[in-house]
Amino acid sequence: MRFNRMMAIVLLLVSKRRITVQALAEFFEVSTRTIYRDIEALLYAGVPIMSTPGFKGGISLTENYYLDKQLLSSLDFKYVLLSLYQLNIQNDTNKNSIINKLELLFDEAELEQIEQHARQIVVDLSSWQGTKTDDAKFILIQEAIKNYQQISFLYTKLDGSKKARLVEPYQLLFKSGRWYISGLEEGASKLFLLDRAKQVELGEVFKPDENYFEKGFVWEEQNMLLFVLRIDRAIFHIFDSWHQVEIIEEQDDFLRLKIFAEHNAWLDNFILSLGSACVVESPESLRAFVRGHVLDMYQNYRGDEGRGKTNDESGS
Predict the structure, then answer these.
(1) What pLDDT shows up at residue 221?
(2) Where are the beta strands (DSSP E) in the chain?
(3) In terms of DSSP bridges, do strands 123-124 and 87-88 run parallel, antiparallel, or are they unpaired?
(4) Which end of the chain is more exposed for a tag (fewer CB within 10 A), N or C?
(5) What region, left, alpha or beta, does residue 160 occupy, with left being phi > 0 and alpha being psi -120 to 50 degrees?
(6) Residue 187 DSSP one-character state
(7) pLDDT tens per residue across span 240-288
């Protein structure tokens, strides 16, 4: 197996310090051309092999090269390569570079087997409507995080209003099917939905907070609400993609849901749009709001029971 042979070459170089290509070919019972290909792959992977000409020449490692005793096995590297294959992030040059290096450790039959396993389970982090613009934004924020640069962007809130933000980014977080920007805004840890951040631009370099990841974050939207709804089963698909939804009771004709979401005008109008298929059970403040709007709607249409009917239908 090529991987095992290449790792053995490194171990031999560590122990013998210098050895000829011919000796390696005889030891592994392969051709010198094969050994040269292995050495080329090791060089590409970053192993500092040097060649010394002459009677006592050969190949060796640079003098200060240190090989960690906690070596990964062939199976370990296979799982790393398999994971990278399965992780679909478009235009990620770092990922592609690592894949290219790891592929050198395996022969064609092994690579074919790994690729076959990779096709069986795929983690695709892109959206169905993903665009090159989305990819560019993702890569730009990655660069900002790596270089500790501020980012500015125009952020759209759920009510449709927009606000310019200036953030020190520390992390791109993938949770519950969506990407978030985690960072500091005016000293406070916040999360922003990546989809709602537009016109992203790099800013000035900032001094990173060494304790950032020990802090808890706060949502960019502050007014979060825990509420309970009773809904018709037929409309559950509407809530299926919501992040923090828990089914707390199931009956033949309805579901009872516990939901944690931002309370704003959009949520109020959304619940009203569901009509009789949705009943707010708690909190009482939200229930009272819906009840008040329903009564207002009733007053608007009160007295219209006979409108549009024919004389026969109205009993005249």
Answers:
(1) 46
(2) 18-19, 49-52, 58-61, 87-88, 123-124, 149-156, 162-175, 178-185, 188-193, 197-205, 218-219, 224-232, 245-250, 254-262, 278-282
(3) parallel
(4) C
(5) left
(6) T
(7) 767 678 899 999 889 999 998 877 777 888 899 999 999 999 999 899 9
pTM, to two decimals = 0.48
The DSSP code for 142 is H
Q: What is the mean pLDDT of residues 186-191?
A: 87
pLDDT score for 220:
46
Q: Are 254 and 230 in contact (CB under 8 A)?
A: yes
- Three-state secondary-structure class, residue 277: helix
Structure tokens, 6: 């290449």
Domain boundaries, the chain: 2-61, 74-124, 132-219, 224-301
Which CATH number is 2-61 given?
1.10.10.10
Tell me which amino acid residue 311 is: N
Q: Which residue has the higher pLDDT, 231 or 54?
A: 231
Average pLDDT, the chain: 79
Q: Which amino acid is at 158?
A: L
Asked if 182 and 173 count as a contact pair (C-beta separation under 8 A), the reply is: yes
Token pair in block for residue 216: 């808890």
Beta bridge partners of 50: 60
CATH number of this structure's domain 132-219: 2.30.30
Q: Among residues 139, 229, 148, which one has the least CA distance to residue 184?
A: 148
**HSE of 207, CA atoms in CB hemisphere, 13 A:** 0
β partners of residue 245: 259
Q: How many CB atoms lie within 10 A of CB 144?
A: 25
The runs of H, that is alpha helices, within 56-175 are 74-86, 93-103, 108-120, 132-147
CA dihedral defined by 10, 15, 17, 22, rounded to 10 degrees?
Answer: -60
Tokens read off for 287: 């229930």
